[in-house]
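Lab notes, practical 5.
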Amino acid sequence: MDQQRKHVSDTPSPAGELEAAPERDGMTCKDSMRYGSQQLDGHSPTAALDARVLLSHVLRKDEAWLIAHDSEIIEVDHSIRYAELLARRRRGEPVAHITGSREFWSLQLAVSPSVLIPRPETELLVELALRRIPADADWRIADLGTGSGAVALAIAIERPRCQVIATDRSHGALQLAKRNARELGIGNVAFVAGSWCLPLAALGFELIVSNPPYVADDDPHLREGDLVYEPPLALRAGPSGLDALAVIAAQAREILTAPGWLLVEHGFGQQSTVAKLLTEAGGRDILCHRDHAGLPRVTECRLCAADPKEA
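Output from the prediction step:
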């Protein structure tokens, strides 16, 4: 068996991009993480983190194990696989697509190129929603444009008496979200196909959350980094990046019961326009919240239910 094994440095990388790994019978976890970080330097703004995540994925061990066993020798087959994944990351492929998963709100979620990769800053949307939902509430909550189901599932697990109903236009996204709910064992969430509020017209909700697309069609960032690999449907929102937010603001009243809450994520520099859209829709108590980087990220407001006489 040993005669058939090859060292990483003896095996051509998928694109011939990686420098040879140190010549030795076996690399330790610490050596591998250092090597991976060096190979990703200049290709990723989070090179060290990416290297740890990829090594953890290859070894099927968590990052705490890697640190606690930094002198552990890694099997050569694992080193070869690790080098292959590093090469994919060097070419720009998102780590979440390489591993097929991303953690959000301490939930391990399956992701794919059919959905937006959950971002840490979107946890603010969940945090603010939970502030509005009493711990023992049995509310009905809508998540518009659910993608992987990240926001819906995070709220559902924190408020088990509530019923969360999530929508998305993408069949692939809905299938993935259902898979995540099933694998996490979260039963108080349902997923329906359709655009924003339209499939929910016959229902009433106390609170609505949404992380819609909010990037302008010609934004140069769409040609950079992970965004290149993510679905345009989950990113682009017209010339100003506000098309989806405008629709949500206009439709939300139609599915709210009594005065309810609407919380939406948006981009930097959009907060004033979002506040105007919500005001025009009848929103009150409008408040914009900043994320951990200090950027305007989520705006919330109270909305009265639509008057049937207006229909």
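Observations recorded by the TA: Residues 1-16 have pLDDT under 50 and may be disordered. Residues 118-310 form a domain with the Rossmann fold fold (CATH 3.40.50.150).
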